[in-house]
Amino acid sequence: MAQQYDSIDKIEEYFMTANKGEIYAEVVGRVEKILIEKALERSSGNQFEASRLLGINRNTLHAKMKKLDIDAGKFK
Predict the structure, then answer these.
(1) What pLDDT digit, counting tens, does each position of 1-48 carry?
(2) How far is CA 36 from CA 24, 33, 39, 69, 70, in A?
(3) Which CATH class, in words, describes the domain spanning 9-71?
């Protein structure tokens, strides 16, 4: 689904439209992407600082960014 979820309220809507068996991965992926992008925004694209804000290892952050197709350069 191409919809972006900006709030938890939208999750209920997603339950009504998503394919069974895909809800957890899809919702967690969308929330995770929003969190990472917000952390990069607050840290001006600095991955080390963003990882500290999120409480995860920088290598973990980098792997998640790659998986979610997030470019830290757009936050600099």
Answers:
(1) 344 545 667 777 777 777 788 888 878 888 899 999 999 999 999 999
(2) 18, 5, 5, 11, 8
(3) mainly alpha
